[in-house]
Design brief:
Low-confidence stretches: 1-10
Order of helices and strands: HHHHHHHHHHH
Largest sheet: none
Structural class: mainly alpha
Length: 255
């Protein structure tokens, strides 16, 4: 596939965010770029090239298709990582990139919890493992940006931090999230999400299970009690992060 960068004047009208994405990827990733990058550089690849209503959804779906890891999903992780660490990308899209990395890394556990006791219909364990490891490898670089990020993006970063816990990152979450805990009370979407992150960071299985039971009984789509607690927790966390992202979009629709 020809992945050359065309002259901007050779391209038809397009959503401004695609131009930002293309500039970032052109600067940060050398050839050969992942196949999904074709949507940024070749108008013939995208039938909705000029329609910003479809671009982002289609681009993200090329990487994680219908929330299911495929053989090429791991190849798309560097695209999301490059977008998530570049300040030219607006905060809302940086949040979305990290949110998609979270979804990619947790697809196997979330689907296990959702389908229990049956096996997920479209599971591809090899692709899920490759994609998870690809996200794991980029997570330290993402977390290193914590101090420079806005509160909204930090919420998504916190989710990745508990998916890939380390002896360094977990203790750091309590002081890093203190301001959000004080600002957002329990019973709000962000408040509950942040408090659940801190429960997961404590790595206490009994406390995690009790919190999962409490939150799912009150607000969220529950999972079978036969599901291993880590998978139930990630399933819940994914729902909560999605709700937080939806709320942020409504609060700041122009970002």
């Amino acid at each position: 596939m020809n992945m050359h960068t065309p002259d901007r004047n050779d391209l038809p009208d397009e959503p401004p965010i695609r131009r930002v994405f293309r500039d970032v990827i052109a600067d940060r990733l050398t050839d050969p770029r992942p196949p999904q990058a074709a949507m940024l550089f070749q108008s013939s690849v995208d039938p909705f090239w000029t329609d910003d209503r479809f671009f982002l959804g289609d681009f993200y779906d090329e990487i994680l298709h219908q929330d299911t890891c495929q053989p090429g999903t791991a190849d798309g992780v560097p695209l999301l990582t490059a977008l998530a660490v570049d300040d030219r990308v607006p905060p809302q899209q940086r949040f979305e990139a990290i949110d998609l990395l979270f979804s990619t890394a947790t697809a196997a556990e979330r689907h296990l919890a959702d389908c229990w006791p049956n096996s997920p219909r479209h599971a591809d364990p090899e692709s899920e493992d490759r994609a998870r490891e690809a996200v794991r490898s980029c997570t330290p670089d993402l977390l290193a940006r914590w101090a420079a990020e806005c509160p909204a993006v930090r919420l998504a970063l916190a989710g990745l931090a508990v998916v890939f816990p380390t002896a360094r990152t977990l203790p750091a979450l309590t002081p890093r999230l203190r301001g959000l805990v004080e600002q957002h009370p329990q019973g709000t979407d962000i408040g509950d999400y942040v408090r659940f992150i801190l429960v997961l960071a404590a790595e206490n299985d009994d406390q995690t299970l009790a919190t999962v039971e409490s939150l799912t009984d009150a607000y969220w789509k529950g999972t079978s009690r036969g599901v291993p607690t880590p998978a139930r927790a990630v399933h819940l966390l994914g729902q909560m992060l999605n709700r937080v992202g939806t709320g942020l979009t409504r609060s700041h629709p122009g970002e």
